[in-house]
TrEMBL record:
InterPro entries linked to this entry: ATP_syn_F0_a_bact/chloroplast, ATP_synth_F0_asu, F0_ATP_A_sf
CDD domains: ATP-synt_Fo_a_6
Function: Key component of the proton channel; it plays a direct role in the translocation of protons across the membrane.
Bilayer-crossing regions: 33-51, 63-81, 87-109, 116-135, 147-164, 176-203, 209-227
Subcellular location: Cell membrane; Membrane
Keyword ATP-binding: no
Top-level taxon of origin: Bacteria
Species this chain originates from: Kineothrix sedimenti
Keyword Transport on entry: yes
Annotated keywords: ATP synthesis, Cell membrane, CF(0), Hydrogen ion transport, Ion transport, Membrane, Transmembrane, Transmembrane helix, Transport
UniProt-recorded name of the protein: ATP synthase subunit a
Length: 229
């Protein structure tokens, strides 16, 4: 059990890969390097998939791509509403990144979402998007007035909610990824053969995609609330 605990702590630690020799040394963590790899893969995939797109006589690859993107746009637009349509590219990008970050452990990399700094950054970006969306839609006066809606007594609760939302998004994603990792580690320790394969399909694949879905779904709902009248 001690070996397992040490192994678990080793997996949870985010080690410094290299240091940039500026301002006394800027440490670059594993989660940052793996994020760069994910960004490179997504960029390369985007370049390959959008090459030679046609208006007429489209091929099977383009048809499948348009169907997938159209389905994602339709799903997210159902959450954010027509007024939040301009924020859909960010939401789809976040879903792709979190999904890949949760699944990349299957290829031997440490998932960036095991690093609390990464989930905090994602939550802060999302909450900034939500508040900016509300500010752009309602204007400064309407945005400030919305904190006293539907009645003035709700003002403290609505202000508190601004700080609770990113905490909720951050801890839900980090906690679920961490919990899945711990459970899989225990299963492999207790029953190391056969059984972990079935659980791995759930915890390493299905649960990772579910967490990406939940994060984007909640962000979409919050954006939809921010831009509504």
């Amino acid at each position: 059990m001690d070996a397992f605990v040490e192994s678990l702590l080793g997996e949870l630690n985010c080690e410094v890969v290299f240091t940039i020799p500026l301002f006394g040394g800027i440490p670059v963590l594993e989660s940052v390097v793996v994020t760069w790899i994910i960004m490179a893969v997504l960029t390369l995939a985007s370049i390959i998939l959008v090459r030679n797109l046609k208006v007429e006589n489209v091929g099977r690859k383009q048809l499948m791509l348009e169907t997938a993107i159209g389905g994602l746009y339709g799903f997210v637009e159902g959450c954010v509403g027509h007024r939040g349509r301009k924020y859909i590219p960010y939401l789809i990008t976040a879903a792709l990144y979190i999904g890949m970050a949760d699944l990349i452990g299957l290829f031997g990399f440490k998932p960036p979402t095991k690093d609390l700094n990464v989930t905090i950054a994602l939550a802060l970006i999302s909450i900034m998007l939500i508040e900016i969306a509300g500010l752009r839609q309602k204007g400064l006066k309407g945005f400030l007035k919305s904190f006293a809606q539907p009645i003035a007594i709700m003002l403290p609760i609505n202000i508190l909610e601004v700080f609770i939302r990113p905490l909720s998004l951050c801890m839900r994603l980090f906690g679920n990824v961490l919990g899945s990792f711990v459970v899989m580690g225990l299963i492999k320790l207790i029953v190391p053969a056969v059984v972990p394969v079935a659980f791995s399909l759930y915890f390493d694949i299905f649960d990772g995609l579910i967490q990406a879905y939940v994060f984007v779904f909640l962000t979409s709902l919050f954006v939809g609330e921010a831009v509504e009248d």
